Amino acid sequence: MEQQTEYVLAAEQERHLAERVKEAREYLGLSQEFVADQIGISRPAMSALETGKRKVSSIELHRLAQLLKKPLTYFFDDDEVLSAPQDDTARALYRASKGLSEQDQQQVLRFAEFLRQAGRAPSLTSTDQS
After folding, report:
1. How far apart are CA 7 and CA 65, in angstroms?
2. How would you classify residue 69: left for phi > 0, otherwise alpha for psi between -120 and 50, otherwise beta?
3. Quick one: which of 46, 51, 42 has its CA closest to 17?
4. Res 71 pLDDT > 80
5. Which position among 30, 37, 77, 127 has the lowest Cβ density within 10 Å, counted as fewest Cβ atoms?
6. Which residues form a coiled coil (predicted)?
7. Rounded to two decimals, what is the model's pTM?
């Protein structure tokens, strides 16, 4: 019975890891073929890895973490804070900022923080006209 429980837990962890790999790859806009080539496996093997039908070796996981710019813990932690944004706007912002210099990225961050701190601008169509 205990061995069966361990197998179920391992299967859940493998599914979670597979989901995280796919999520991070898609977030960066990378194809399965590109990622597979970079880590040294075939595209069908990459597809199987992302669906949980293939286990990932520790070397492959290290290569994936480097390529996908994620700490190894990302693939194991179930913390939503570590998840890639699911929002289309957040993805677009990320992709738009990828081509910017470090200085420009910092400026974008400062502007985003300014907008967050400023809150909503007052409406220009106010009916209170004295």
Report:
1. 25
2. left
3. 51
4. yes
5. 127
6. none
7. 0.55
